[in-house]
Amino acid sequence: MGSADSKLNFRKAVIQLTTKTQPVEATDDAFWDQFWADTATSVQDVFALVPAAEIRAVREESPSNLATLCYKAVEKLVQGAESGCHSEKEKQIVLNCSRLLTRVLPYIFEDPDWRGFFWSTVPGAGRAGGEEEDENARPLAESLLLAIADLLFCPDFTVQSHRRSTVDSAEDVHSLDSCEYIWEAGVGFAHSPQPNYIHDVNRMELLKLLLTCFSEAMYLPPAPDSGGTNPWVQFFCSTENRHALPLFTSLLNTVCAYDPVGYGIPYNHLLFSDYREPLVEEAAQVLIVTLDHDSATSASPTVDGTTTGTAMDDTDPPGPENLFVNYLSRIHREEDFQFILKGIARLLSNPLLQTYLPNSTKKIQFHQELLVLFWKLCDFNKKFLFFVLKSSDVLDILVPILYFLNDARADHSRFGLMHIGVFILLLLSGERNFGVRLNKPYSVRVPMDIPVFTGTHADLLIVVFHKIITSGHQRLQPLFDCLLTIVVNVSPYLKSLSMVAANKLLHLLEAFSTTWFLFSAAQNHHLVFFLLEAFNNIIQYQFDGNSNLVYAIIRKRSVFHQLANLPTDPPAIHKALQRRRRAPEPLSRTGSQEGASMEGSRPAAPAEPGTLKTSLVATPGIDKLTEKSQVSEDGTLRSLEPTSQQSLSDGSPAMEEPDQAWREQRRLSSASASGQWSPTSEWVLSWKSKLPLQTIMRLLQVLVPQVEKICIDKGLTDESEILRFLQHGTLVGLLPVPHPILIRKYQANSGTAMWFRTYMWGVIYLRNVDPPVWYDTDVKLFEIQRV
Fold first, then answer.
1. Over 70: is that where the pLDDT of 360 sits?
2. Taking the alpha carbons of 762, 766, 771, 774 in that order, is the dihedral positive or negative?
3. Which InterPro entries does the record match to this protein (predicted)?
């Protein structure tokens, strides 16, 4: 039968279904088989031939028929899984049913009355003898998920058969050890199967259906306390699924082994179509959804120890009940970590390669999913995090993230990308090794729209952060705290900042310490505290190599004097705020010598009009996002959180953390009748007295006269002479006692877990356009907005 006839017959069946007012018996195979037995329709056909309006009409007007359709389609998948799909016809039926379910499920989820349907055991009306079902009947959802899992390891359908002779009966589905059929070499599996286009396509269809099952989460509004687990994910990732380990490993290895370059030959992708990419993308999406687990709130019930392969570490206490999270947290072999890190770094760097030899490699689009995966790895597996920071390989993750941050800074449809990039850097910056690694010289020249500089990866980070703050979208301001916290966390380890980076930091201080900026919002002065803390760390712990920064501080000394003499009387505050009304632009580029941007770079572009974006929930403030720790003499960290109240009384400069002041701000600043915030003298005094200016004032007191003397003696305006003097100068014994180093480490919390959930599903929603699985359905987790 030709494909046109096939489509016509399928469409006829759909019309019959939508026009029948009476329930059709489940036993009426002649009717139901029209949907899957005789047709060969692609998933795109199914979407075109089953319009949304008709699915909704059947749901409202003949619910029992929709119920039977779902039940029969699941039954066919279960039969296919049981029989092992030997004939072409069986394979076709399985694919048709999975496409049909992918089409229909979102419309079941969008209606609250239907949501329990898949979790009920009696599968809807019209089924002969439904009442006599035995007690142990599984809910429809469980049967569906187990069938998908079996089908993903079905020889000659989704995996290579191991049987040599065709005479021999095919492998028995029930005795098959799916660990021998893992899709790709990598973690816990050494054998790389022959690539097979048909198997990849079949896996992809089944993964698309699996992702659609999991997507019920999109139809529930974001609840602040929703540690609520997704029942579909919970069941699929439990010990009920005997394929959990091989499937987790298959997904992870498929993603991390993928090389879009075309086996190292430039332009190869133009000759061979790459059918692997859609599978890799689907695998990445399924993987991050199965790992959606709120580590802040979850208890860790025990897991049957027998499920672990050798690749997983058995020494740790049993992890969470979600086996995918459990396995991920227990990967421990160096070679596995190396494989994962290299794979993710290779894929994240792919869009950057484009810029050297345009079109030489296939440009991948799933970098956001990769960043979520990397985040999950670091968050759930501390051994992986330490491995990443153990060598300079971490820089292969850092550079692409900085590239994405810089590229997306003006585009508000890419806010989610900005946030996840900053979150990852915040997580990494809590570890001393990250700061140390940043001292490696930056020689790769990825074309980026930033000033040219010669220096280290620390310089690159500071220059990009400066660019985001001064020329990013104005709605990025909530991220400034995070960006500067990262700078503070790495500052004690930065051996030598370039002049470009030093000037950028002082330009930020200059911009943030203008009176109208300080007085115009309750939180703005935090930014000044962060910058002063970073300067103090560098002066106290890395003075020797940082003559560029010291010189920049001397040149801009007036900024520090202005801060020390900040006016606190009401008329001055009022006057500063008046000035603001005349100068709305918060951070101009003036005062920062931009210099030419790198060759080959394109300026960061705003969102194209009409671009779709999904809304995000608010992220927690920096005080909720991080927890303070003090670095001891031996380099170990001591948390300051619950007990920091006592240590504040000892008056050591490090403890001059304006924490209480921050809590008292609201009390001290008056909210005027209009609800507009307005600063008071008491409020300014409450934090002005805590500005950590002692170290810098002492440095200026000692060095400024010496520098002025050189200038007078030599009649110099030449920087190099002054820099040489500063390089050999020393302040030993002249500065205040070094303060303890304070690190603000990321801490897991349900606020970020909820943010990740909405961000991740938003990405999946927008990226699945062919077929458009969720478009025009009534999702509740986020809003879809047009730019």
1. no
2. positive
3. Hid-1/Ecm30
Helix (H/G/I), strand (E/B), else coil: 226: coil
Chosen domain end from 338, 358, 390: 390
Same domain, 570 and 525: yes
The residues pairing with 745 across neighbouring beta strands, listed in sequence order, are 627
Q: Is residue 310 part of a domain?
A: no
Within a domain: residue 315? no
Contact 480, 521 (CB under 8 A): no
Cβ atoms of residues 577 and 516 within 8 Å: yes
Write down the residue that tokens 């298959």 correspond to. 250
- All residues at 6 or more sequence positions from 783 whose CB lies less than 8 Å from its CB, including other chains: 614, 615
Structure tokens that stand for 107 in this block? 């419309």
Same domain, 378 and 421: no
Distance CA 261, CA 362 (A): 6
**285 and 367 Cβ atoms separated by less than 8 Å:** no
Q: Which residues pair with 744 in a beta bridge?
A: 628
What pairs with residue 186 in β-bridges?
189
Please tell me the predicted confidence (pLDDT) of residue 357: 57
Nearest partner of 464 among 395, 399, 389, 514, judged by Cα: 399
- Give yes or no for a contact between 146 and 240, defined as CB atoms under 8 angstroms apart: yes
Q: Do residues 109 and 780 make contact, with C-beta atoms less than 8 angstroms apart?
A: no
What is the three-class DSSP state of 614? strand
| 477 three-class SS | helix
Is there a contact between 102 and 55 (Cβ–Cβ < 8 Å)? no
Domain that holds residue 473: 391-580+605-640+681-733+741-763
Residue 171 has pLDDT above 60, yes or no: no
The CA-atom distances, in angstroms, between 584 and each of 115, 272, 577, 578, 587 are 50, 54, 11, 11, 9
Could you tell me which residues come within 8 angstroms of residue 227 by beta carbon, excluding any fewer than 6 positions away? 294, 297, 298, 750, 753
What is the C-alpha to C-alpha distance for residues 330 and 252, in angstroms, rounded to an integer? 14
CA angle 136, 140, 144 (to 5 degrees): 115
DSSP state of 638: E
Residues 497 and 455: beta-carbon distance below 8 Å: yes
Q: What's CA 42's distance to the chain center, in Å? A: 32
* Distance of alpha carbon 751 from alpha carbon 618, whole angstroms: 8
Are 243 and 284 part of one and the same domain?
yes
Helical ranges in 303-409 per DSSP H:
323-330, 334-353, 367-380, 382-390, 395-408
Evaluate whether 174 touches 245 at the Cβ level (below 8 Å).
no
Length of the chain (residues): 787
Amino acid at 592: S
DSSP code string of 25-42? PTT-HHHHGGGTTS----
The Cα 199–Cα 159 span in angstroms is 6
Tens digit of each residue's pLDDT (9 = 90 or more) over 742-760 = 999 998 887 888 889 999 9
Plot region of 218 (φ>0 → left; ψ -120 to 50 → alpha; else → beta) = alpha
User: By the 8 A CB rule, do 787 and 607 touch?
Assistant: yes
Q: How many domains does one find in the chain?
A: 3
Angstrom distance (rounded) from CA 579 to CA 281? 52
Which range in 460-464, 638-642, 700-704 is most confidently predicted, on average pLDDT?
460-464
Tell me, yes or no, whether 112 and 211 share the same domain.
no
746 closest CA partner among 622, 566, 579, 591:
622
Q: Are 726 and 548 in contact (CB under 8 A)?
A: no
Residue 632: count of CB within 10 angstroms of its CB: 11
653 in a structural domain: no
Q: Are 323 and 238 in contact, with CB atoms under 8 Å apart?
A: yes
- The pair of structure tokens assigned to 99 is 């496409």
Q: Rounded to an integer, what distance in angstroms lies between the CA atom of residue 615 and that of residue 482?
A: 20
pTM of the model: 0.88
Q: Can you tell me which residue has the tokens 């930056």?
A: 442
For residues 286 and 294, the model is more confident at 286
285 CB neighbour count, 10 Å cutoff: 27
Residue 242 belongs to some domain of the structure: yes
Tell whether 374 and 244 lie within a shared domain: yes
